[in-house]
């Protein structure tokens, strides 16, 4: 049986529990105040933590009369205060939030504001704020650019190089990266600090990198099922089907998207681990 923390609410249910309309929830999402998860079919899903945030947003708006920008700042300040007081047991056990926490720590260590980092990377400050708070809401390309900005990798942000490696990983027992990008699940086929990043990418219909990126190293991609399109250097297109593979230098700008009407599953290897 699922525990309370695993309950997911649809838009109408979340709106009723938060005391607002469904259209208000969608408006808050466009304003970067909340980023709900998505089901496999793309429908919005709200957790208990999302509901608590929705109630805080409603309170700031009704009782304090704050505009969206001020509400974001107030929520950011609350998040920073919680960080300073130390995470509670639930937060410590919630690996899905670690990407955002690590990015916030890196930003604070660099002495940068949300606006400075967002401007340098080319995203809205509200998007970065949401990512730091929820570890969700950005594409793989944006996440890579943020990791590169702070001199780290997406793998490191996702906890892949933490000292809990297993030499043998059984089928179906893969650890996962925190799910920062809707429709993209990254499973670890090898753990620890290795010379290769070995991943199993599971892409929902329509999932993509949402932009091109590049880094050092070389990459090998093998299609286990489905269909995926890769674009290298903006003008070389590769339509890959089950059994097809692609090898390329990571310094070439690369983008990808699932072209299958179902899931696409990829074996993806980077060496050295620079992604």
TrEMBL record:
Classification via Gene3D superfamilies: 1.10.1660.10, Jelly Rolls, lambda repressor-like DNA-binding domains
Residues covered by the HTH merR-type domain: 8-77
UniProt GO molecular function: DNA binding; DNA-binding transcription factor activity
GO cellular component: cytosol
Keywords for the protein's UniProt record, in alphabetical order: DNA-binding, Plasmid
Domain (HTH cro/C1-type): residue spans on this chain: 103-157
Protein name per the record: Helix-turn-helix protein
Species the sequence originates in: Sinorhizobium americanum
């Amino acid at each position: 049986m699922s525990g309370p923390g695993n309950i997911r609410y649809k838009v109408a249910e979340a709106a009723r529990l938060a005391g607002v309309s469904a259209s208000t929830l969608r408006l808050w999402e466009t304003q970067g105040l909340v980023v709900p998860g998505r089901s496999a079919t793309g429908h919005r899903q709200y957790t208990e933590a999302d509901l608590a945030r929705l109630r805080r947003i409603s309170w700031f708006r009704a009782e304090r009369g704050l505009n969206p920008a001020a509400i974001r700042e107030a929520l950011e300040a609350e998040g920073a205060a919680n960080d300073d007081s130390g995470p509670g047991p639930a937060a410590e056990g919630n690996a899905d939030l670690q990407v955002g926490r690590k990015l916030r720590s890196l930003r604070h260590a660099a002495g940068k504001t949300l606006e400075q980092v967002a401007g340098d990377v080319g995203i809205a400050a509200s998007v970065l704020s949401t990512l730091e708070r929820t570890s969700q809401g950005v594409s793989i390309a944006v996440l890579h650019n943020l990791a590169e900005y702070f001199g780290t990798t997406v793998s490191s942000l996702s906890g892949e190089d933490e000292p809990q490696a297993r030499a043998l990983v059984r089928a179906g027992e893969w650890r996962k990266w925190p799910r920062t990008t809707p429709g993209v699940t990254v499973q670890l086929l090898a753990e620890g600090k290795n010379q290769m990043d070995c991943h199993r990418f599971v892409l929902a219909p329509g999932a993509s990198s949402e932009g091109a990126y590049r880094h050092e190293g070389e990459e090998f991609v093998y299609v286990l099922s489905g269909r995926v399109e890769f674009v290298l250097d903006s003008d070389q297109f590769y339509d890959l089907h089950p059994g097809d593979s692609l090898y390329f230098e990571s310094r070439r700008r690369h983008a990808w998207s699932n072209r299958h009407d179902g899931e696409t599953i990829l074996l993806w290897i980077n060496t050295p681990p620079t992604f």
